[in-house]
Amino acid sequence: MSRDIAPFGLRMKADLKERLDKSAKENKRSLNAELIARLESTLANTEKFISAEKAREAAAHARSQIKERILAKCFRDINEGIQVGINDIYLNLSEFRLDEVDEDVFDELVSLAVNKLDELGYEHEFFDASIHVKF
User: Residues 71, 115: contact at Cβ < 8 Å?
Assistant: First the structure.
């Protein structure tokens, strides 16, 4: 059995590797498979015509990135609220077009932020494309 895989050494900052490891675990694949999926997704986005399978893979990859972006936005907005002395914020998620996805996908996309909010003791409730967070 011959392998059509060229070995390739890669150096990266430790914090980037940790984030990629975390993403790989969330996507239930190895770090190598995560990196390959991300690279293929990036290249697929530059192709004029892509197969339905590649489109599904690219969308799944984008969903994993959106979860992290929602989490980052949530805590960025919380920190901004703290700096101006307020105890609650309305986190506007309209930029993620969550109103265009079904309820299961919505729940998946906000799960990382919701779990972290719960873990840290924040109160929260949903309003359309926003989350009201109290602290």
Answer: no
Q: Characterize the bridge pairing of strands 88-92 and 130-134.
A: antiparallel
Give CA–CA dist 130/125, Å, rounded: 9
User: Who contacts 87 (Cβ-Cβ below 8 Å, separation ≥6)?
Assistant: 81, 134, 135
The DSSP symbol for 131 reads: E
In 16-86, which ranges are E strands? none
Can you tell me the distance from the alpha carbon of 10 to that of 127, in angstroms, rounded to the nearest whole number? 43
| Regions of the chain where pLDDT drops below 70 | 1-3, 44-47
Q: How far apart are CA 36 and CA 27, in angstroms?
A: 13
- Asked if residue 41 lies in contact with residue 61, where contact means CB atoms within 8 angstroms, the answer is yes
Start-to-end C-alpha separation, the chain? 59
Render pLDDT for 34-69 as a digit per residue (tens, 0 to 9). 888 888 777 766 667 888 988 888 888 887 788 889
Closest by CA position to 101, among listed 123, 128, 61: 128
